[in-house]
Amino acid sequence: MEDTTKARAMDRINLIWVGVGFSAFYWILESVRDVLAFGRGTLTERLFYPDLTSVWMRLLIICMIIFYGFYAQSIKANINQEGSNRATGRFRIVVSGFLFALAYWCLEAARDVFIFKKGSLFVQLVYPDVPDLSVRLLAVCVLILFSVYVQNLINDRRALEESMRQKQEELEKLVEERTAELRKANEMLREEVEGRRRLETALWISRRSFQDIVNATTEGIVMVDQAHNIRFANLSFEEMCGRTSQEIVGEPFSLPLNIGQTAHVMVKNPTGATEVQMRVLESEWEGAPVFLVLLHPLSDAEALARW
Fold this sequence. Notes:
- By secondary structure, the protein is α+β, with helices and mostly antiparallel strands.
- Helix content is 67%, strand content 14%.
- It has helices spanning 2-11, 15-38, 43-48, 52-82, 92-114, 121-126, 130-216, 235-241, 245-248, 300-306, and strands at residues 220-225, 230-233, 262-269, 272-285, 288-297.
- It is rod-shaped and about 155 Å long.
């Protein structure tokens, strides 16, 4: 967010108006130089009422600076539009500033030769007199300073774009990693749900098979928990006591539970009682320890033989 704000602030800078600002800066420097170096009147006079020759020289460099501002603004707009990958070169703007300064130097030399008749073009290019040299150097310094400012602005914008691009790539990479992790977690959850479903199906089949087996035997089978409450009873035990499993489950088991011992007991029912042989074993039901009670009904012959 901070990088985006900085980028927008840089994009709002209009280099044409910056060129106007540098032109005003040059006008002030030129006036100060005329007063301090050449003693040409007061600062107010040089700022607001310079002579025509000074106006001509100043307007020439101001036009060069503003024209360079137009050029720099167009370069900046192209870079912003086409992105930082555009091959502008790290110091292209500074080099163009030197070229503009060179063009200004040549224009000044040509003006001195053809308008003011100051020697030959070669002399004015290479060996200008001291006043002209000071004027040109001041203008060249302002132009180069302007180009350095523009170059730094563009370089900072490029570095900011690169930073934003890297952060975007890091964010995309992070999103991809998180998406992969979520996909893996979802897959593991799906496998876990599927495994639990298969386990529940197998458990249901196992329990159904168990009930089919215990209901097929003629012996009564009862599961009694540690609190001596009935947890399960098969069909044979239902027939012995004359009640359904829905009525039996949860009821207390009234017969004595002596593990490992065999006893003959009477199982009451609505019509009387049934004599059975009872054995009690240790077992487990739904993960909890229980008493496994086996009740073998005695036939008439077995009952008579016992007596």
